[in-house]
Amino acid sequence: MNNKLIQASLAELVGTFILVFVGGFAVTIAGQQGVAVPALAHGLILVSIIYTYGPISGAHVNPAVTAGLLVGGQIRLDRAVYYWVAQFVGAIIAAVVLNAIVPGTNVGQTTGSLTNSAVWAAAIFEAVLTFFLVSTVYQAAAFGKAGNLAGVAIGFTLGGSIQAGGTDTSASPSTALTRTALRGLQEKYDVYVVWYACLERDSLELEIARLRLTQAGVIPTSIAAVMAELNPTLAPVDSF
């Protein structure tokens, strides 16, 4: 592996980290400010990433974009593999840092309103939005149709797609992976809080963790039993 490929892969890692980190924080306040905040945050930071890291790696910062460019012969397979690894690593690091800064905070659901009721509709919707993004990358950047405004066109497309699909929209496997990983870290954190609250007889901490875990549907049977013994006045919860 040559130095230029290492530099390009690092640029993809850092760029993906920035996108997921900023986007994740924006989603945490989406409940108060609405979907416009994460849509603008993702779109604007992507514009910045493209102009900053584009000269180094092309600023794919999205496995779907890399896959699309690979299919179209715009990138070699070995480079695509390095980019994919870098993108997923950058996204996972962003998830860990986010969880360290705001543990237990919602940074985006791993399932949307269509996931359980119409999973194929949700998949098609994600595919269409991803097509919008990748096709814009092709026309604006790969084919040079947008010139120096390519970054603006791509960033606006991502922002518009999130605005259309809501905060559950990813249009990126790395973003979806990050939300899933961070959701798992949040659930583990809440489980530990439950056990600590049970041992310390801290009803307030127990109630807060119970509410979060109940919403996530991850109350283990043993924990539910201990919770009921500790505070019988709590509303019953389903367990598995």
Write the layout of secondary structure elements.
Blueprint: H1 3-28, H2 30-33, H3 36-57, H4 63-71, H5 77-101, H6 119-142, H7 150-165, H8 173-200, H9 203-216, H10 221-230
Q: What is the oligomeric state here?
A: single chain
**SS summary, helix count:** 10
> What spatial form do the alpha-carbon principal axes imply?
globular
Q: What would CATH call the homologous superfamily of the largest domain?
A: Glycerol uptake facilitator protein
CATH architecture of the largest domain: Up-down Bundle
Overall structural class, as computed from helix and strand content, comes to: mainly alpha
CATH class of the largest domain: Mainly Alpha
Bin the helical content. over 70%
Low-confidence stretches: 191-202, 218-222, 234-240
How many structural units, i.e. domains?
2
Radius of gyration based on Cα positions:
20 Å
CATH fold title of the largest domain: Glycerol uptake facilitator protein
SS elements, strand count: 0
| N-to-C series of helices and strands | HHHHHHHHHH
**Distance between the first and last residues' Cα:** 48 Å
Mean pLDDT: 75
Beta strand % = under 5%
- Biggest sheet, in brief? none
